[in-house]
Amino acid sequence: MRSILFVCTANICRSPTAEGVLRKLLAAKGAQGFELASAGTHAARDGMPPFPMAVTAARRRGYDLTRIVSQPLVPDHFDRFDLILAMDRGHQRHMLAIAPTRARGRIEMFLEYSEAFHGEEVGDPYGGNERDYEAALDRIEDGCRGLVKVLVR
Description:
Elements: E1 3-8, H1 14-28, E2 35-40, H2 52-60, H3 75-80, E3 83-86, H4 89-98, E4 107-109, H5 130-151
Parallel strand pairs: 1-2, 1-3, 3-4
Helix pairs in contact: 1-5, 2-5
């Protein structure tokens, strides 16, 4: 598994945060050769940077999201990525409904890699307050730490 795509709704909060967190954690381990990206199930924010509250919450914990730009989930993603991680069950259902059969086995729930939040969802903080972004980031960090354990051996 060398390429990972994180997917949320508009690719402006949860999935770019997960991309940024995993990128930093892998770099801290000296892991190289991974392709990381994020996308949204809806293209409403295509080409936009992550939402300012997500950027601020991530920055407070040492993650840089400033180079990430929103993109929609496209058919090519299903063949290009080894692992496609949904932030919530709605995203997973959507992807399973549109993915080619050959790609369905690569679509998983992101927090299946989490220890503290295993089997749960990363709630959408959009429209919420600072505490909502911090709670999403808690889950994302835990899920990414679990992913690193699988990716870097």
